[in-house]
Amino acid sequence: MASAMLAPLAFGDVLTVINNFLLLLGGIAALMIGINMMGGNLEKAAGRHMRRLMGKATKNRFVGVGTGAAVTALVTSSGATTVMIVGFVNVGLMTLTQAVPVIMGANIGTTITALITAISTTGGGIETAAIFAFLAFVGVMMNMFGKKDIVKQIGLILAGLGLIFVGMTTMTSAMGELMAEKIIVNGELADNPIAAAVKNMFAAIGGGGGTLTWQIPVLFLLGALLTGLVQSSAAVTAIVMSLASQGAVDMQFAIFVILGTNLGTCAVALLSSLGTSVNARRAAFVHFSFNLIGGVLFIIPLSFPAVSGALVGFLQSFIPNIALQIAVFHMFFNIVTTALLLPFQNLLVKLAMVVVRDKKGAKTGAEEDETLDYRLLKTPAIAIGQTRKQIIKMGQLAFANYKLSLEMLLSGDLSQADEFASREKHINEINHYINSFLVKLSLEPLSQTDEKKLSSFYHVTSDMERIGDYAENIVEYAQTALQDKIVFSEHAVEQIHKMDYHLTELYQNVEAAFEKIDLSNLGTIYAEEQATDDMCTQMQQSHLRRLSENRCTPEAGAIFLQLALNMERIGDHMTNIANSVKDYAHK
Q1: Number of domains in the chain
Q2: Which residue from 271, 318, 236, 334 is spatially nearest to 28, judged by alpha carbons?
Q3: Residues 577, 574: Cα–Cα separation, whole Å
Q4: Choice between 276 and 504, residue whose per-residue pLDDT is larger
Q5: What average pLDDT does the chain have?
Q6: Is 181 a residue whose pLDDT tops 70?
Q7: 230 with 301: CB under 8 angstroms?
Q8: In 3D, which of 465, 432, 387 has the Cα closest to residue 91?
Q9: What is the CATH number of the domain that holds 564?
Q10: Is 73 in the same domain as 199?
Q11: Which alpha helices (H) appear in 78-190, and where do they start and end?
Q12: Can you point out the beta strands (E) in 325-386?
């Protein structure tokens, strides 16, 4: 037998090893694609519900934990959820204190993926894989032939779920071939050198069933490092389950690697927090400190063989499948850690404030960064809502500039011209940023309604920018009037004020309709828009009458006519904004 062990592998045997290794990699790929497909389409289908969940998360800590768990179960990634939370804190959607329970809940939600992958190793595996392979087929058919978006999304969710099971089963099968104790070498039964090398490596760092002492930090850091590299605790957990199912590692090895994977998920959030507000960086640090403290709290007692042995024995007493034991431990760890640390959320916040200090004179939260945050792209439904807020802000700035330009024209005082120019520059910057954000958002999976909203937003920002441009024209008229000492008659000023009144009423109703996606005041909007058209006609007719009666100079008349046309066009653009809501508002 010894000679068989040392016998070189034949070409066919080498191909068998290579094939199994490629199948292992393919299984990992299918697993991760399935996780992303299921999570992305669940988020797409439940976008509005996720917005409501995030709104409820700010009410109390227990709702926050539940929200974090629910959202993470939907997107199947605690890292993705934590990146969202960092983005929410960065733009002021959440305070740091409100974010802490949601981060804790995210750790619980991510264990759902581990349970799903563990199930694929129970009940013989092949039967389970066959059922879910068929489920994936049904999902693909629904996506290909379904006519409604919701049917297509459900199809992709089922396809993703099926791929998770198929990927896990493929991994387990390939791992079984690679880790088999005996293989055929040149037609003879021999010990598997690959399996022996892998098991020896794990045994050297504490995975071979021996007493765990100094090896524990190595296992913990191994889990953290692997998770940080692949940016998916689910993938690392699945690999550990697959190894454990084939006897390559024992439960004690798996426990400490799983504790490390929780810390490894922090890498994504920490990286995403670079360049954000102080509070956003603190949110990422809270995630890190929570997982580190939780890991240490478990490592200390489990370092004693009697304790870890008792835990393993307890799990084995009612769960015969080691993969499921790992998944249950993963969930148990996160639930217990949350229960222990949730009462101390304020202390975690204080710790984050001590470690991540304010820069002198720096602002925090929404004050530091009032623009859109690209981290919000991970949750398109929420990103759409935040884009709407920024567009409203842009509209408020544009209308404020219109009011200021009219004031300068009528008063002849141009002392606020610099303020006007600064605001106009800000409007252009916001417009550019919003449009860049919309381009990136259009590449994300969107529901049909959100696609309509995104499409309309391009036109709305254009309309608002045009309002700002017309305000610039009015400032130019003010400069000309001051230079040429042009003064409007009392009747002309009265008509300008009346036109301004209708524009103000129109703006307020349009802003309400756009902000609340409410068409109930559309009749008022159309009435006010018609009033601006009528006033423009009256202003033109009055000008001709005053000119014929020599009560107006040609120079004043030219500015007055241009002003009337510009104000009427501002009204048109406002109405365009209101009409855009009709494309997606719920009837």
Answers
A1: 2
A2: 236
A3: 5
A4: 504
A5: 78
A6: no
A7: no
A8: 387
A9: 1.20.58.220
A10: yes
A11: 78-91, 96-109, 111-119, 126-145, 149-178
A12: none
Q: Tell me, what DSSP letter sits at residue 191?
A: E
Cα–Cα distance, 80 to 376 (Å, whole number): 10
Q: Does residue 332 carry a pLDDT above 80?
A: yes
**pLDDT at 35 (0 to 100):** 64
What does pTM read for this prediction?
0.59
* Strand ranges inside 402-530, DSSP E: none
Amino acid identity for residue 171 in this structure: M
Q: Which residues have a Cβ under 8 Å from the Cβ of 173 and sit 6 or more positions away? A: 23, 27, 125
DSSP label at residue 181: S
Whether 67 and 180 map to the same domain: the answer is yes
Q: Exposed/middle/buried for 144, CB within 10 Å: 0-12, 13-18, 19+?
A: exposed
Same domain? For 469 and 549 the reply is yes
**Same structural domain, 412 and 447:** yes
Pick the closest to residue 192 from 380, 17, 41, 408 (CA basis).
Answer: 17
503-523 burial: b if 16+ Cβ within 10 Å, else e: bebbbbbbbebbeeeebebbe
What is the residue range of 186's domain? Answer: 2-355
310 with 409, same domain: the answer is no
Contact assessment for residue 543 and residue 571, using Cβ atoms and an 8 Å cutoff: no
